[in-house]
Amino acid sequence: MDYRTVKEDIMKIEDRIRNSYTLMAYGDALGFVYENTGKMDFGDFSGDWDEENKIHFPSGQWSDLTQLMLITTKSLLDDEGGLRIAIDYNRFSEELNYYQYYRNGYPRHIIKAIESRELCKEEAYQKDVRGYGISRVGAIILANKNFTQGLEETYKNICYFNKHPQVILTGLIIARIFYLLLEYGDFSREELLQRIKEFLIELNVKGLLENNKELKYLLAFEQERVNYLIDLDRLIKEDKITFVNNSWSCKNMLFGGLINYWRILKLEGLYTEGIPSDDIKESLMLAYGLAGLNKDLNIKTLSNVTNLSFIDSMGEYTAKLRNYKVSKKPYVASGNDDNIFNLEVGKPFKHDIFNVSRILEKTIRKGYLYLRLENKTGSYLLIKKDSSDC
């Protein structure tokens, strides 16, 4: 449906993609420091890596959410012949293998998914309603001109970690919102929510779930769609999140993101009421990313974001993918990579994932090996339990 005249200025769209990408990292960084300090003021802080390890983060550090978005972006292939930008899951899987060691934070469900050999049989795969990390689908849609193809890629990537109907619908809605704002510009609150409702009503569920014929699951999916439509109507009038049975979900996370998106555009204070401290970063990541599609926000503290030039370059890279200017080749493991944790300090090496890199230091503390790695994109702290082969 053509709501407005599509914006033809490709350079302007490229600028908005880069702006949105950078501001997603900003929103994440703002929420990450809030999660660990209770304040939205940039400064050094410490945060959990797991139940046993707490690590120091510099001012403006973004979390594992931005890292997951970066991994998703690095795994995209531009297929001009097929008019699509698709995820190379060989690359995505290998990136995740290292993400579990260098992540900034403790994304429990994602770590469990990486470690699981049969994820589809895990209870969380079927029942987890939070869908942590779902903000990564923004990168998929920003890179895709073809929304239908982009939606298919979004669906597949959501299902990599989670099959809950609400999580799938939330990811698809996030994709639709990014597409609408990128292609058609700003909407009023009521108009945008109406477009989301139309998208849900017209969504071809049978086609989407063609590989899942289980009646119980299909009925649950339809019920979630109905619930979403009811809650979207409520959101038109209410500037707050309504909790069902005092539970927190990906839907609430998205609604918090939308409320803050509208507040950012109106230069109002951010909404935090009822949002768990460890989840506000994803709501803010979406809020600022969406706002970045509409206007170039004059954020004085943006320069505080860690490795900002790299984040900005990945936004530019996403825009190049969208215009099929990268010609990215599918990932093929060289088979020559050594165990990073065994490499000598100071000696340069070439790696399939980290490219040309160097180990800066290695230390062992309380049964864990800490390894600091540096390459042209920045510095990585990898952590793993110490063992005899390290």
From TrEMBL:
GO terms for molecular function: metal ion binding. The keyword Heme does not apply. InterPro entries: Ribosyl_crysJ1 (IPR005502), Ribosyl_crysJ1_sf (IPR036705). The keyword Magnesium applies. It comes from Alkaliphilus serpentinus. Its cofactor is Mg(2+). This is ADP-ribosylglycohydrolase. Gene3D superfamilies: ADP-ribosylation/Crystallin J1.
